[in-house]
Amino acid sequence: MANESGHMFSTDRPIDKREEDQLDRADFAEFIATAVSNWREKDSLVVGLYGPWGCGKSSVINMTIDALGDKGDQSPLVVQFNPWQVSGQGEIVAAFFQEIRSALPQADDGSSKFLQAFDKYATVVSLVGPSAILAASTGLIDPETATALTSGAAIAGKSPGLFRRFRRKPESFRQTLSKMKDTLKGHMKDLERPILVVIDDIDRL
């Protein structure tokens, strides 16, 4: 059947706003948005949207994000991460942390303990290789040594800003990954607004 333009092809493009909804799914999207906005527990919340290909999952996600925009300060900080925009495991990890970092509230004087803890953890996890991460997480080697096991040029190319912070104060990275993670989790509990990371097509990741 031809569409409005007279063509027999469909772009399979999801809708973005609730007012575009023609399948009565806007109420469901608003329900999800309300449930997420009302979550105030200290533990993380994971919400999965399941359905066969082409059933409209991306449209529901977009409408949910649209509905969250009506919640004001009650809504979480939304980070939309698209792994298709990067290639390679290392690049995906670095891009993931960078997307979250860009959505976080910035401290004018750079004194935010949360941001410092986030940058430290992101630096080590993003820049060292999988084997070094495993060794550092168990305390067999410190993160400085783990980072040194990788190519300095490759590290600088992946994330110059994080690499410069590491080079300025390498002694501040001498902790196990588990300790860094626990410190970061402690600061995240004090955030006024939680962080919502949205990943579409996670089954293709």
Our estimate of the beta-strand percent is under 5%
| Strand elements, count | 2
N-to-C span: 33 Å
Radius of gyration based on Cα positions: 20 Å
Structural class: mainly alpha
**Mean pLDDT level:** 76
Low-confidence segments, given as residue ranges, are 149-156
In terms of quaternary structure, what is this? single chain
Count of helical stretches? 9
> What percentage of residues falls in helices of 4 or more residues?
40-55%
The largest β sheet comes out as:
2 strands, parallel
Form type: globular
Lateral arrangement of strands in the main beta sheet: 1-2
Please trace the helix and strand order, writing H or E for each element: HHEHHHHHHHE
Write a structural description.
Helix content is 47%, strand content 5%. It contains nine helices and two strands. It is mainly alpha-helical and 205 residues long. The chain has a two-stranded parallel sheet with strand order 1-2.
Topology diagram in text:
Elements: H1 26-37, H2 57-68, E1 77-81, H3 89-103, H4 113-127, H5 130-137, H6 143-148, H7 152-158, H8 160-168, H9 177-188, E2 195-199
Parallel strand pairs: 1-2
Helix pairs in contact: 1-2, 3-4, 4-8, 4-9, 7-8
Which terms would index this structure?
globular, 9 helices, two-stranded parallel sheet, 205 residues, mainly alpha
Write a brief structural summary.
By secondary structure, the chain is mainly alpha-helical. Helix content is 47%, strand content 5%.
